[in-house]
Batch of 2 targets.
Target 1
Amino acid sequence: MPRAAPDDILIVIHELAHLMRIRFDQRARQHDMTRAQWVILYKLDRSPGLTQNELAAMIEVEPITIARLIDRLEAKGLVERRHDPSDRRVWRLHLLPAAEPMLEEIAAVRQDMLELLLGDTVSPEKAAAAEATLRLMKSNLTADGRSCPAPAAKAS
């Protein structure tokens, strides 16, 4: 008989995150965008003037990946790079007014996702408790201080 594993919550969190990413990908594609581009718009809306390196660290991708994503958003007229006033080598990222309709769409999709997740079965109290618990878990991971082991070297 299979035993209840303490890692079941890990599987549920992983599967939930995966399903959410799929839904956000689908909605972003309807607007000829990617989920990664939406994340950038969302982050810049909340923290205008980030550098490409700060944004890359925040969303855990390589700086070259951010540069390419910003190139595409710039071509769409949604984002612009501005020189940092104190260091001309640094580019600061800013949203343009044309990004506002997309930010409204992102907000609507986030609201739709929340309504879908909670449905009629999850009370506001349960949702608040789940959020608080997830925030504690996140805090535990970030406060842990242990780093992930480096990948093993491949044998030649």
Target 2
Amino acid sequence: MATYVAAIDQGTTSTRCMIFDHAGSVICFDQREHEQIYPKPGWVEHNPDEIWERTQGVIRGALQKGHIDVKEIAAVGITNQRETAVVWNRKTGRPVYNAIVWQDTRTDQICNALAADGGQDRFRAKVGLPLATYFSGPKIRWILDNVAGAQAAAEAGELAFGNIDTFVTWWLTGGPDGGVHVTDVTNASRTMLMNLETLSWDDEILGLMGIPRQMLPTIVASSQVYGTAKGDLAGIPVSGILGDQQAAMVGQTCYSPGEAKNTYGTGSFMLLNTGTKIVPSKSGLLTTLCYKFGDQPAVYALEGSIAITGALVQWLRDNLGMITSSAEVEALANLVEDNGGIYFVPAFSGLFAPYWRSDARGAIVGLTRYVTKGHIARAVLEATAYQTREVLDAMEQDSGVRLTALKVDGGMVYNNTLMQFQSDLLGVPVVRPQVAETTALGAAYAAGLAVGFWNNTDEMRQNWQIDHTWHPAMDDVKRAALYKGWKKAVTRTFDWVE
């Protein structure tokens, strides 16, 4: 009897396999990091072969740790770092180039050339996205331009493209031996190549970017049976795919229009469910797919994407050596009472929402001799909260919906100092659920829903429980003054790259 659902969570810095029971509780998991490759300033790559190797490793690791027989697993779902593009050979499974990561800025000239006719919002009406280095489409173009013979091979049908969800699904279902080449609507909506209304690849944009349609995966629902796994999960239905932020929406049970969540990971991503309605953004947000369950109508979302939040803490650890583990940042920040007058704007790969400025670069402003490493640590944490506030303001403008509380998840939600400051800055309660690993849980829900492990979204809603709530404790005058300082600091990062 199948009593569990497995989820593969392939993230920016690591890969996890988590196994959940019917109540949505984590039974066991295994996690392994992979290498971050920085060939040039602004370039970020991953080795797709290493990612697939790690994926197999964590599947085995989770099954062993939980002493779980494969027969006990009803289905497996996949969630992934979005917009990270892989192009590989269909016959061999070998990538023609490293995966180009979502944070990578090398496609700025491609984006600028496309924007020369029609501006940054040239395709926004169709795809919900501005022309930016963030998205996968221009990354495919770069690979086809820079790998010898790639364009011809792609036109001949020899090459396959996918975000990481597609690459993992293809290998999981057999790779060169009958692997399924699919992507779900949420991942497809991050390529800049899918029409939001038709949920199909847009021929006009493919033509303008010179991307052969035959290299693209088939677009499918987020919850349906795509095929069966080979290897360690042999015979198990592969039946859920969601981009990581949409998976967190599903895991946070944000199934009604107006429900929102913020995930604090490498970057931070706030999504607001807008129901079956496509809401165009006038405030720098993305219009994206939220999920599509089987034959039901697609559900859409507004998204505010922030490039660097948890990654800034990692930078403090790895590049500056101020801390030896990410968890230490809270104690360091608590050595001081405030930020000492400094702001840290982490525009390491430009600014995402609501600015979309690839010419911006990181800055610490307001430095004086008074400032200590405690102040820098506090400014690092506060940067996450300020960026979230900017996105929330934009969301309220676009949707006309006032947020009454913010559901949060991801690694940084165990940082009480940050969560309290977040609540203070937003002026609303911040709510952490008991299962904060909502990304993997969302992938499990999508997979389990497709095979009847869960019958409907109501069953999944019943699993959601509050772990902790932070309430705002800052007065309006102080909140406004701090935020004004942040807005001023952000302008200092503009126009750095010429």
